[in-house]
């Protein structure tokens, strides 16, 4: 192909979910409500952990990070999606597209590493409870959190750089709801084997490696739980991990499905649905899972609501 056709595209057009106006308006209303619930739920979790001293533990320190990642990821995707539902021309500038890819890919990587860190925290809590405070000290927790954020950000920076150095020729229609890496790479008018290999490698490093650490942690946890003689003790140990395990299944399942084999992966519609799952459902469900399945969080909610009720009563009198 001649170099004259290998031009740089200055903007892209996102095809989105549907071109039907009525459907787009309905989706706008649905996703607007979902996004508000997501933001409110995650910020309430962060506020609750901040206010209740009983939640000042490593587990909830990592949960705070997870909530910040979730709300940031949703904010990277959903507002632009809402604007495009009501826009006639669903245009996104090159710089905005690159920024969206960087933040969404980075935050996704951070979440996978963070879930592995949380699995290690649960492993220590169940398998070595007497030394939990000594092992999971503040310095280690901070370093593990920083490692999660740095590793995801560096990986995203590399992928964003090698993706947007590809010549797109005249291709500017992205068959997706956002500037997702696989959808953007498909626009290139040159061989993208290197990008596909890079995606595979990063999937192994930032997806499969943390996933294997999570599996190893839970093998050890389950083995320890089965050795507990009392039924009550086993239930208590299991509930310690139930919320995290539910989130792990939600987050890792579809990511492995879509990213491990990018050259023969799912269809365009499946990719869009998976992206919606990560951008809307997962960030909304995570605080609910930790609130509904965790006795400490439910107790903190009850305490906070009781204090608010008492305050309102005093103001009323």
From TrEMBL:
Entry's localization field: Cell membrane
GO cellular component: plasma membrane
Membrane-crossing segments per the record: 25-49, 61-87, 99-120, 197-219, 240-261, 273-292
The entry's keywords: Cell membrane, G-protein coupled receptor, Membrane, Olfaction, Receptor, Sensory transduction, Transducer, Transmembrane, Transmembrane helix
Membrane-topology descriptor: Multi-pass membrane protein
Record has Secreted as a keyword: no
G-protein coupled receptors family 1 profile domain sequence ranges: 41-290
Molecular function in Gene Ontology: G protein-coupled receptor activity; olfactory receptor activity
Entries under InterPro entries matching the protein: GPCR_Rhodpsn, GPCR_Rhodpsn_7TM, Olfact_rcpt
Classification via SUPFAM superfamilies: Family A G protein-coupled receptor-like
Major localisation: membrane
Free-text function comment from the UniProt entry: Putative odorant or sperm cell receptor.
Family from the record: Belongs to the G-protein coupled receptor 1 family.
PANTHER family in alphabetical order: OLFACTORY RECEPTOR
Name of this protein: Olfactory receptor
Organism in which the protein naturally occurs: Myotis lucifugus (Little brown bat)
């Amino acid at each position: 192909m001649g170099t004259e056709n290998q031009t740089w595209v200055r903007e892209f057009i996102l095809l989105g979910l549907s071109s039907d106006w009525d459907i787009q308006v309905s989706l706008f209303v649905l996703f607007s409500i979902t996004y508000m619930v997501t933001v409110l739920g995650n910020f309430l979790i962060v506020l609750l952990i901040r206010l209740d001293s009983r939640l000042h533990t490593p587990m909830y320190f990592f949960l705070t990070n997870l909530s910040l990642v979730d709300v940031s990821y949703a904010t990277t995707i959903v507002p632009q999606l809402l604007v495009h539902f009501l826009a006639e021309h669903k245009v996104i500038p090159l710089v905005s597209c690159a920024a969206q890819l960087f933040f969404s890919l980075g935050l996704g990587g951070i979440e996978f590493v963070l879930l592995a860190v949380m699995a290690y925290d649960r492993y220590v809590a169940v398998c070595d409870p007497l030394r939990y405070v000594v092992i999971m000290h503040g310095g280690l927790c901070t370093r593990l959190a920083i490692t999660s954020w740095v590793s995801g950000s560096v990986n995203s920076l590399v992928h964003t750089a090698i993706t947007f150095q590809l010549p797109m020729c005249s291709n500017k229609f992205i068959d997706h709801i956002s500037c997702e890496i696989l959808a953007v790479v498909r626009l290139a008018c040159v061989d993208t084997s290197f990008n596909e290999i890079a995606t595979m490698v990063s999937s192994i490093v930032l997806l499969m490696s943390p996933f294997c650490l999570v599996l190893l942690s839970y093998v050890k946890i389950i083995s320890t739980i089965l050795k507990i003689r009392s039924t009550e003790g086993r239930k208590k140990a299991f509930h310690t991990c139930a919320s995290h395990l539910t989130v792990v299944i939600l987050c890792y399942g579809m990511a492995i499905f879509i990213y491990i084999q990018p050259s023969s992966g799912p269809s365009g519609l499946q990719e869009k649905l998976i992206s919606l799952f990560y951008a809307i459902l997962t960030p909304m469900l995570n605080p609910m899972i930790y609130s509904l399945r965790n006795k400490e969080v439910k107790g903190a909610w009850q305490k906070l609501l009781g204090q608010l009720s008492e305050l309102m009563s005093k103001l009323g009198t």
